[in-house]
Amino acid sequence: MIGCRIRIYRKKKGLTVKQLAKIIGISQGSLSDIENEKTKPSAKTITSLVRNTDINPDWLLTGEGEMFIRPAKVEFKHMTTEEILKQFPQAIPAHPVPVINIQVPAGFPEIPLEKEQIIDYLYLPDIPKGSLAIKVRGASMEPTIEDGDYVVFLPINKLGEPIKNGDIIIVRNEWNELILKRYRQKEGKAYLTSDNPKYPTIEPNENYKIIGKIIRRVKEERF
């Protein structure tokens, strides 16, 4: 397993969990979870390992070959995440999910996004085609979703099912910004609530539009 091999490599190099986590840019807890096979490393985490250490990606992903990279294979250190995915598609079953700016066109999602509105990509397995993501700003949905988390959502025109009471949704507000709220319905009327009790309930008017439903929360350090 990849997590086990990362632990073997770390110990062979005489590094602590804290030291290796700092080298590859994730938290100590995240690396510990990966090494103990509680979570799988993301494509970006694996790319960071390849770029910032002398681990051999062939050995890391398949268990074959030598643990340490040979000078002749130093080009691995310059591989992009996309190149890693193409070279090891079975080891990292993921595809890119566009991270979009929270400021969107008034007609979104019916109006396609311009390239300039895509600010990054996440590489995640088992995500429905057409999914998008935003980076959360603010504490209105804490503790369920925290500031700095990413959330992946399926646009309403691709959802294939109605929004249900209690779903966490993406809403376009009257300023054409995407906000994260929980959908509530009472006596035939819709409300937008926050999981953080410090934030007020919104009674949406015609300027608010449901854009999509949250299907996954991802911690930033997982990429």
UniProtKB/TrEMBL annotation:
This protein's name: HTH cro/C1-type domain-containing protein
Keywords for the protein's UniProt record, in alphabetical order: DNA-binding, Transcription, Transcription regulation
Species name: candidate division CPR3 bacterium 4484_211
UniProt xrefs under SMART domains: HTH_XRE
HTH cro/C1-type domain residues: 6-60
Lineage: Bacteria, Bacteria division CPR3
Domain of life the protein comes from: Bacteria
InterPro entries per record: Cro/C1-type_HTH, Lambda_DNA-bd_dom_sf, LexA/Signal_pep-like_sf, Peptidase_S24_S26A/B/C
One Pfam assignment: HTH_19
Coiled-coil residues: none
A molecular-function term among this protein's GO annotations: DNA binding
Matches recorded under SUPFAM superfamilies: lambda repressor-like DNA-binding domains (SSF47413), LexA/Signal peptidase (SSF51306)
